[in-house]
Amino acid sequence: MPQVLFRNVSLLDPRWEEARGGHEVLVEDDTIREVSDRPIRAPVARVVDGGKRTLMPGLIDCHVHTMHSEVYVNRLETMPLTLMAAHGAERLKRMLDRGFTTVRDAGGADWGIKSAIEAGLVPGPRLFISGRSIGPTGGHNDRNRRTQTEPVCGCCNAMVFLRSIADGADEVRKAAREQLRQGADQVKLMVSGGVASPYDPLESRQFTVEEMSAGVEEAKAFGRYALAHAYTPEAITRAMTAGVRTIEHGNLVDAPAAALMASKGAYMVPNLVAYVVMKERAASYGMTADMLEKNDHVLQSGYAELELCREAGVKMGYGSDLLGALENEQSREFLIRREVMPAIDVLRSATLVGAEIVRREGRLGIVEPGAYADLLLVDGDPLRDFGCLQDSGAHIHAIMKGGRFHKYAL
């Protein structure tokens, strides 16, 4: 089996409080075989001199939208699926270029694009898919025009391909089963209003507890779990009652809802960067004034969300949720969270906590024997300055995924 030996590196394992110099890491095939603060004997290994750069685990983004190549999502209704897939492939490659070796798609990516990555047909991160997100008529998931009364075919309309409409517990159950049949790693439920949808208020209640419970039950029966798009304390509380495992966004969470999440061991996946960048740039890409007004509302509560969750003991994963051309800001979430959180906690959200969310703890997000060889060699120490993770990976000199170099620029 091929071996790679990293020497002369400062090792940053997120379980530690700081990077440690003088370490060596031996990779064999797709796995880390040895980690030591002494010289490792590996006579047949390819030796990589890190030049005292930081060697760290690959990053994990737990909320991306691979196939959402338009900021104003309704523009996808005139896009064929082939073009959507081509855009998606390029978006995935750019995520890997930025050092994100694992991503969880929160609605839209299917088993086809996941299989293409696994087969080496397109470069991209490890991909955990939700298939089509599931929501009720008139909810955040319903992008039909008000003049449109008949169902639209999903074979030639990229926007429809990304979503599933279900009303009542039985329809939700059937929709969840279909996504699981299609290879979903998790089931996405829309349980409150949203920013990027045209008609639903943020505080609207979408799906009853009975409907949510049906989706959660099917996911668990398949050995999977449910994640929920939710903003308000009421939506979060109802999702917790139904057994949802991760809350996406959650900007308007209050202390009781955060405490409930902590008591149930649920995860929060904030994505403040999405709202910051939409405020800055989304109007130029067609996002409407009504959407931008909702965006301003949730943006005002974003930093309070981080503090409330930290105080309650809710684990937070790293999420970006960037649509269309806004995706180039994916790493900016590090800088935003750093304003109110310790650097090590921010880094852990994109490594240790992310690994727990995708249920690969011990294999992802750490540097130890038995873990996947998903590694970054960075010019700088992220715990001192997250600037070294910015600029679309320009400061990352080597990116290894599964023991193979995606980038090698030493």
Automatic annotation (TrEMBL):
<dbReference type="InterPro" id="IPR032466">
    <property type="entry name" value="Metal_Hydrolase"/>
</dbReference>
<keyword id="KW-0378">Hydrolase</keyword>
<dbReference type="InterPro" id="IPR006680">
    <property type="entry name" value="Amidohydro-rel"/>
</dbReference>
<dbReference type="InterPro" id="IPR051781">
    <property type="entry name" value="Metallo-dep_Hydrolase"/>
</dbReference>
<dbReference type="Pfam" id="PF01979">
    <property type="entry name" value="Amidohydro_1"/>
</dbReference>
<feature type="domain" description="Amidohydrolase-related">
    <location>
        <begin position="54"/>
        <end position="402"/>
    </location>
</feature>
<protein>
    <submittedName>
        <fullName>Amidohydrolase family protein</fullName>
    </submittedName>
</protein>
<dbReference type="GO" id="GO:0016810">
    <property type="term" value="F:hydrolase activity, acting on carbon-nitrogen (but not peptide) bonds"/>
</dbReference>
<dbReference type="InterPro" id="IPR057744">
    <property type="entry name" value="OTAase-like"/>
</dbReference>
<dbReference type="InterPro" id="IPR011059">
    <property type="entry name" value="Metal-dep_hydrolase_composite"/>
</dbReference>
